[in-house]
Design goal:
It is found in: Cytoplasm. This protein is 18% helix and 23% strand. With 591 residues, it is of the alpha+beta class. It has 2 domains: 60 residues, no CATH class; 451 residues, no CATH class. The chain has a 10-stranded mixed β-sheet, with helices on both faces. The longest helix has 18 residues. It is elongated. The protein starts with 58 loop residues before the first strand and ends in a 13-residue tail after the last helix. 37% of the residues are buried.
């Protein structure tokens, strides 16, 4: 007869259910492993998943079910057929293995599947221009601003679509060569500038100079069907830098008696600084500190003497580069005559258009008569015989003090181009007008920024045209608006001027003109004057912390950042510029 014996029963002295932890062998103690719910329907997907290495998921899933290790439709996993998550799949896996080593040096090169292009290799486009127009640089130190028109030879546009490195890696050169002897003092990113705010009260008018002609209102009635040719008008208009302004020298003596820390500049320079976060192209401002005074100057032949075109476009116009950034040893042939649609050619063309449209759109023969401001033009000498352009200078002082105890002021020379008849007395700052022009070169050219054809859309879909220009020329329009607000202009006239033939940059036609209030247009552009004044005050405080000397504020050509450098006192002087063949001691008159 078989024997029967009872199995050994391990009693739990703690009174709980199951065996006591003290009676279990060491290999069966699971006190360090948390409870993980599971489902009997779960399947083992894979032991190690090497596919999912994107993002921050740098781990290998070991022993996980398909529902826990992968998601529905994800790489390497089918998911559950019924579409319901497995029991416990939402619980964080306690069995995940994390790498202890640093993987910051590893990077994923490419996980995309290659696509096949249809239609064969990309077609190389070519654009030919029959006539070009060169413009001589004016607006030099203490001279007349403007550009003379001249005839050039035949020009060929560059090929499009075959130099991919030019589109993906655009390396612009700095507006001024940075010497290794210069000491960088500070660096400010644009995102920090965009957070600055300073509310400034209404300015104090010191004096007015110049003569203003009335604006011709017939230009407001021009349409694409009644276009008017742009004329070449020979007038003189000055663009003197701050330090060479005789009126500012007189204002200095008056404010010096009050012992106030004062900044002196022009509206052109100040608008660039106030709209710095919108800028893409490089620029530089020469700053001189003498005691408690700061002078913001422009450099002769610098970016302040020209007008940019489609600076903020996603694919802006480019100048031919002599170096391939991906392969510096590769030789790239640069044409001797640049394309009429290159960045430099378009900038000179836009400057020529702006000046001539302002000269042409005023009435020089009474009635109505011109208005002489309080004092004559301070830059027009007694020996000058050529006719002056319509221009009025208003010298205004803004208070940049944050508290009542601070006495920091900025003296700005502002400009207006005409006055509107019947809108008040221009001598009292009423009815003042600033005149600007947008230009169209070729909607199908590289750098056009997706702009619609003005001749077909300007009358019927003006909103689309304006929206595109506000996107492609955000910085330029913002600077024009800030200049108009600083000058106290009531109206800003913007002309839409296009080439008579897209392949000829020498003949232009006026297609339309719009009128807007600068304050309203600033709201449409989302231009904050308080932010601009905050930037000016920040740069002023930064320069006031430095000892007396000369400095230069430079916008990085390829990054959204500005840098302040200390430079020798002999930098950017006339003696250095005379060695440059591009320096023009006797500037040409405006065209």
């Amino acid at each position: 007869m078989s024997s029967f014996s009872l199995p050994t029963i391990n009693d739990n002295p703690d009174g709980g259910w199951g065996p006591s932890s003290s009676n279990l062998p060491a290999q069966f103690k699971f006190k360090d492993i948390p409870y993980a719910p599971y489902s009997k329907s779960d399947k083992l997907g894979r032991f190690a998943d090497w596919n999912d290495i994107s993002g921050d998921n740098r781990q290998t899933n070991i022993g996980l079910t398909s529902a826990q290790g992968t998601t529905r439709g994800g790489p390497g996993g089918r998911g559950r057929r019924d579409g319901q998550p497995a029991f416990g799949s939402g619980t964080a896996s306690a069995f995940a293995y994390f790498h202890a080593e640093d993987e910051s040096s590893f990077s994923l090169v490419d996980t995309k599947t290659g696509t096949t292009r249809r239609g064969g290799p990309q077609t190389r486009g070519r654009m030919t221009g029959r006539g070009g127009q060169g413009y001589n640089r004016g607006a030099q130190r203490g001279g007349r601003g403007g550009f003379m028109g001249g005839r050039g030879g035949a020009q060929r546009g560059g090929r499009r679509g075959w130099r991919d490195w030019e589109k993906t890696n655009r390396f612009r050169e700095s507006s001024v060569a940075i010497s290794p002897e210069w000491a960088m003092l500070d660096e400010i990113e644009f995102h920090r500038l965009a957070k600055l705010r300073l509310e400034v009260d209404e300015p104090e008018d010191l004096d007015t100079y110049g003569r203003l002609f009335p604006y011709d209102k017939t230009y407001d009635r021009i349409t694409t069907k009644s276009e008017k040719p742009l004329q070449l008008v020979d007038r003189i208009k000055y663009n003197t830098t701050t330090s060479d302004d005789p009126v500012i020298q007189e204002v200095m003596s008056v404010l010096a008696a009050k012992d106030t820390a004062t900044v002196y500049t022009t509206d052109v320079i100040l608008s660039v600084l106030m709209c710095a976060p919108r800028s893409v192209y490089p620029w530089d401002i020469v700053i001189v500190r003498e005691g408690n005074k700061l002078f913001f100057d422009k450099r002769d032949g610098g970016p302040f003497d020209t007008v940019t075109v489609n600076e903020n476009a996603a694919d802006p116009p480019q100048d031919p580069s002599a170096v391939n950034p991906n392969n510096p040893n590769e030789k790239v042939v640069v044409p001797e005559t640049p394309s009429i649609n290159s960045a430099t050619s378009l900038s000179l063309e836009a400057t020529y258009i702006n000046q001539n449209f302002g000269f042409q759109s005023v009435i020089e023969t009474p009635p109505p008569p011109p208005v002489d401001l309080a004092k004559p033009n301070p830059f027009y000498g007694p020996d000058e015989t050529e006719p002056l352009a319509s221009c009025g200078y208003r010298y205004r002082v803004f208070d940049l003090g944050v508290t009542e105890d601070e006495d920091i002021k900025i003296c700005v020379r502002t400009e207006v181009d005409a006055y509107s008849p019947g809108q008040g007395n221009p001598r009292l700052g009423q009815g003042l007008v600033t005149i600007r022009a947008l230009n169209e070169f070729d909607p199908r050219s590289q750098g056009a920024g997706g702009a619609p054809d003005w001749r077909t859309k300007l009358d019927s879909q003006r909103g689309a045209v304006v929206a595109t220009e506000m996107k492609n020329n955000s910085c330029k329009l913002a600077k024009w608006t800030v200049q108009s607000v600083l000058a106290g202009a009531d109206l800003m006239k913007i002309g839409y001027i296009s080439r008579a033939n897209p392949r000829d940059n020498t003949r232009h036609v006026i297609l339309s003109t719009t009128s807007t209030r600068p304050t309203d247009f600033a709201a449409q552009l989302n231009v904050s004057l308080a932010n601009g004044w905050g930037i000016v005050r920040t740069v002023t405080d930064l320069c006031m912390k430095q000892p007396e000397g000369k400095y230069v504020l430079i916008k990085d050509p390829n990054k959204p950042v500005i840098r302040l450098y200390a430079v020798p006192s002999t930098a950017f002087t006339v003696e250095e510029d005379e060695d440059d063949p591009g320096f023009d001691e006797e500037p040409e008159s405006a065209a």
